[in-house]
Input
Amino acid sequence: MAVLRLIAFAVALALGSAAAAEPTADPPPAATMRPAPPDLPRLPSRLDDGTRVALPPMVVQHERPGADRRPMYIGAGLIALALVFWWNRRRRDRFDREDADSSDSPDR
Output
């Protein structure tokens, strides 16, 4: 709808119509944060203690939450880290043995 208004405005502007130059809709009133004038009538407050309101109890059906798998993920991550550390230690020991064997050989 706004696109059609823009197109009509552009066409009217191109044809030179003075009526198209003026906006057709009234601008919204400017919002102010001034206090209300003192001559306005004072209305009684509408808040009460709520004794006349009687609502039935609301029953909310809760879905059973799914199983929390985060502890299993943490356990699997710890096992994976332990395996990586074990494998790294085993390789390091093997490299140390190979270095020790190569330094003991008379070829060097």
Notes: DSSP finds three helices and no strands in the chain. The helical segments are 2-15, 18-21, 70-104.
